[in-house]
Amino acid sequence: MIKREQIAGMNIHYLFYSLEYFLDAQAAAGIRTIEFWPGTPHFFLSYLEYSDCKRVRKLLNDRNLTLRVITPENCTYQYQFAAQEKEQFEKSLGYFKKAMDAGEELGAEIMAINSGWGYWNEEREEAWKRSREMLSMLAEYAKERGIRLAMESLRPQESNLATTVQDVKRMLDEVNHPNLKAMIDTTAMGVAGETIDQWFDVLGEDIIHMHFIDGNPYGHLIWGDGTHDLEEFLRALKRHNYMGYLGQEITEFDYFNNPAAADLRNIKAYEPYII
C-alpha cells in the first residue's frame, strides 16, 4: 500500500546521539528517505549561518540515503512564524530563509512549517496577520529556492492560530502562493477530532506531506504504541491517491534512550503494507 521510499525517518529522538549514529540506524532499519531536523547537536542553524552541508551530503551518500524534507526547529527555539516583536520577526524570517538555503544544498524538495503562535493576551487576528506576512515572504523565497512549504496544524496547547484543517485552508487561501501547500500531522489532526478523509476533502492535492505517527491522540508515538489504526490510515491515503512522504516525527522522551530500537519496532509495523 505504500512504497518504502515514502517513509521518511527523522532525527529528533536521536538528540543524545551523533548524526552518524542516526544515519546508521536508518540504514539498518531499511529507511531510504530522510526528513531532516537541522537542530543541534546534529546541525547548527541560525539566522546568520548553518553547518557544512557537503559533510552531511557525504554522510547521506555513503549510506545510500536521500534527504527530501527539511524541518527547522520552531517550537523549542526562539524562532517562530508569527513572532511578536520586530527583532524576533526579522530574525525568525532570516532563520527560515537560512533553513531553505540549507535545504536547497541538501536536496530537499519540501520544508515543513506551521502558523506559529500569537500572544494569548492579544487579538488573534493581529497574530494571524503577522503569520500571513511571514508565510507570504517565505513562500516567495521558497519559489526562488525550488522548495515547497508544507504547512501543518498545531494543537491548541501549541498555538492560537492554525489548529484545524479549516484554519490551514484559510491561511493557504489568504497567502495564495503556489509554493505554500499543506501537510497533515496526525497528532494535531487527532486532537482536533478530524480525519484524513476530512483533510483531503478540504485540501485535496494541496496536501503534499505528512507527519504520520501514532497517538492517543496526543503524543508523537511509534506505530503500535497509540490508538490510531495504521491499516485504516493507509487505506485512507490510498483512497486519495496520496504518494507523498510520511515523516516519522517521533518526539516522546521515552524513545530518546534507545531510538534505534524504537525505529526498528516502528518499521516492523509498516512491513506488511510496503509494496
From TrEMBL:
Coiled coil: none annotated. InterPro entries: IolE/XylAMocC-like (IPR050312), Xyl_isomerase-like_sf (IPR036237), Xyl_isomerase-like_TIM-brl (IPR013022). SUPFAM superfamilies: Xylose isomerase-like. Residues 24-257 form the Xylose isomerase-like TIM barrel domain. It holds the Pfam family AP_endonuc_2. This is TIM barrel protein. It comes from Blautia celeris.
